[in-house]
Amino acid sequence: MEEKRKHLRVKKRIKSEVHSDQGLTLSATFDLSNGGLFITTPEPMGEGSHVELALHVPGEEPVSLKGVIRWKREQESEDSKAGMGIEFVDAPEKALKAFKKHLG
C-alpha cells in the first residue's frame, strides 16, 4: 500500500482537547507530525468536522491550532486504537514551533 502522508509521523503522547460543534473530547495524541495528528478517543467526531485543538506540550503553554477531521476509526483492535486523524488548517508557524522539538 502506498504511503499518502506528506509528513513524517512520530509516536508521541501529548494531552489534548478537541473542541467542535459536536462537543469536547479530552484525550491524548497517539502520533503527530507537522501536518496533523491522531487522537485516541472511543467516540471520534465526524469526518469533515472543523475543530479547535489545545495541545498541552510539557513545559510549554497550551498550543492552540485549528484542524479538520480527515478520517476516523470507531473500532479498536490489538493493533489499532479508536480515534480520529486531524489535519492542521492554517497552522501558524509560531504555534507549530512549540511542539516541533518534541517530534525528534
Can you put this structure into words, describing what you see?
The two termini are 26 Å apart. Strands 2-3-4-7-6-5 form a six-stranded antiparallel beta barrel. Strand 5 and strand 6 form a beta hairpin. With 104 residues, the chain is mainly beta. It has a single domain, classed as Thrombin, subunit H (Beta Barrel), CATH 2.40.10. 8% of the residues lie in helices and 45% in strands.
Keywords:
104 residues, mainly beta, Thrombin, subunit H, six-stranded antiparallel barrel, 1 helix
Corresponding CATH superfamily: predicted glycosyltransferase like domains
**Estimated share of beta-strand residues:** over 45%
Give the radius of gyration. Answer: 13 Å
**SS element count, helices:** 1
Q: Tell me about the largest β-sheet.
A: 6 strands, antiparallel, barrel
| Count of β-strands | 7
Mean pLDDT: 81
- The structural domain count equals 1
Structural class computed from helices and strand pairing = mainly beta
Helix content: under 10%
Distance from N terminus to C terminus (CA atoms, Å) equals 26 Å
The CATH class label is: Mainly Beta
The name CATH uses for the topology is: Thrombin, subunit H
Characterize the overall form.
Answer: globular
Q: Unreliable stretches, pLDDT < 50, 5 or more residues? A: none
Read across the widest sheet, the strand sequence of neighbours is: 2-3-4-7-6-5
The helix/strand series, from N terminus to C terminus, equals EEEEEEEH
CATH architecture: Beta Barrel
